[in-house]
Design a protein that fits this description.
This protein is of the alpha/beta class. The protein has two domains: about 140 residues, Rossmann fold (3-Layer(aba) Sandwich), CATH 3.40.50; about 150 residues, Rossmann fold (3-Layer(aba) Sandwich), CATH 3.40.50.1370. It has eleven helices and nine strands. The strands form two sheets. The protein has a five-stranded parallel β-sheet with strand order 7-6-5-8-9. Strands 2-1-3-4 form a four-stranded parallel β-sheet, sandwiched between helices. The longest helix is centred in the C-terminal third of the chain and has 19 residues.
Length: about 325
């Protein structure tokens, strides 16, 4: 068994062996994308509910596409059109869905811990698609998959994560996954966006962008999560871009084979310039494609799929 669990709630709880096992299966599913018929029948007759209580574009479409390519039956839950508006609790809504004998729940919620709570009260498998500022495990996995495609073994590689660390679930999943695989993680951003205690996770904290990107193999650039801020954490977008924005000048200072990532959505010319976002050193669309493969792998494995049976399928 690659996954020794019913649910995927975060990379904090996953071992390095589990992470690498999931990515190996994702690589097999990635090969499906180049075939004339891009679907496999491994989830036929299984039902997956996409339970998105928070706005999403990339993650939701990626999960839906992964489910369709596995031939699953899909139900999309839209909170703005649900009984949440009538006062129904998260638990009541989830238990009603589970009573309909669904096989899997993909949940995004603005509250940290929502996915963990649902996993405790439901018998079906739960995949965390992002819970507040806590974790975003599938984004962490697809980021790591993209890095490994370019760098191979990540032990000793330097990954610099830049931006709104305090409010970023992507940063937390990256930190947990990368440190378990032996990468050296540097965090960079304004002091007002840097929570305490991250050095205890084995990260280097740097407030000077030039020092943070020096000798980096990867820059993973984060969006400023304004919707989670209770007060202004920096003077202006222009000031932030001047101090921490990834520009062509920053990219020119990188090592020859270093590359730039971004989980999206991008604030162009704030955390990343348009020239870099559209330039030859970014792998942003590779991240998007790998996201579908990672989510296919997780859904397949949690549904009891046999990794050894994929040779003739994927």
């Amino acid at each position: 068994m690659i996954l020794q669990r019913k649910d995927v709630l975060g990379l904090e709880e996953m071992s390095a062996e589990e992470i690498l096992g999931v990515l190996d299966i994702a690589n097999q599913f990635r090969a499906v994308f180049d075939r004339p018929v891009r679907s496999v029948p491994v989830m036929r007759g299984r039902t997956v509910v996409n339970f998105f209580h928070e706005p999403s574009t990339r993650t939701r479409i990626s999960f839906e596409l992964a489910e369709k390519r596995l031939s699953a039956d899909i139900i999309n839950f839209v909170s703005s059109e649900s009984s949440f508006k009538k006062g129904e609790t998260l638990r009541d809504t989830a238990e009603n869905l589970a009573a309909m004998k669904i096989d899997m729940l993909v949940v995004r919620h603005s509250s940290a811990g929502a996915a963990q709570y649902l996993a405790r009260v439901l018998d079906c498998s739960v995949i965390n698609a992002g819970d507040g500022p806590h974790e975003h495990p599938t984004q962490g996995l697809l980021d790591i998959m993209t890095m490994r495609q370019r760098l191979g073994d990540l032990r000793g590689k330097k990954v610099t994560i830049i931006g709104d660390i305090s409010h970023s679930r992507v940063a937390r999943s990256n930190i947990w996954g990368l440190t378990k695989l032996g990468a050296a993680v540097t965090l960079c951003g304004p002091p007002t966006m840097m929570p305490g205690g991250l050095d205890k996770l084995g990260c280097t904290i740097e407030y000077d962008l030039a020092q943070a990107v020096k000798d980096a193999d990867v820059l993973n650039v984060l969006r400023i999560q304004l919707e989670r801020h209770t007060s202004r954490s920096f003077p202006s977008n222009r000031e932030y871009h001047k101090m921490f924005g990834i520009t062509t000048d920053v990219v020119r200072s990188l090592k020859k084979n270093a590359f730039v990532m971004h989980p999206g959505p991008m604030n162009r010319d704030v955390e990343i310039s348009s020239e870099v976002a559209d330039g030859p050193r970014q792998v942003i669309l590779d991240q998007v494609a790998n996201g579908v493969a990672v989510r296919m792998a997780l859904i397949y494995l949690l549904s009891g799929g046999d990794p050894g049976a994929l040779g003739g399928t994927a």
